[in-house]
Amino acid sequence: MPVRIHDVGAPLQSTMLYRAGRTSTYPEEPVESGIRFHFLGGAGEVGNVGCVIEDQSGTKVLMDYGLAPTKPPKYPSEAPSIDHAIITHSHIDHIGMAPWLVGHHGTTLHGSKLTSRLSEIMWRDTYKVSRIEGYPLAWDKRDLDAALEAWQEHDMGEQFSIGSWNAKFHVAGHIPGAVMTEMDVNRKKVLWTGDMDTRSSPNVSGALPVKCDILCLEGTYGGKYHPDRSEEEERFVKRVLDVVSRGGVAIIPAFASGRGQDVIRILHDAAPHLDVHYDGMGTRVTQTWMDCPELIHEPKSLRKAWHWCRRVRSKSDRKKALDADVIVTTSGMLDGGPAIWYVNRLRHNPANAILLTGYQAEGSGGRMLLDERKLPIYGKKTPVDLEVTQFSLSNHAGHKELVEFARACSPEHVIIFHAEREPAMALATDLEPDIKVHIPKNGESIVIE
Ligand SMILES: [Zn+2]
Question: What's the 287 CA to ligand 1 centre distance in angstroms?
Answer without folding.
Answer: 19
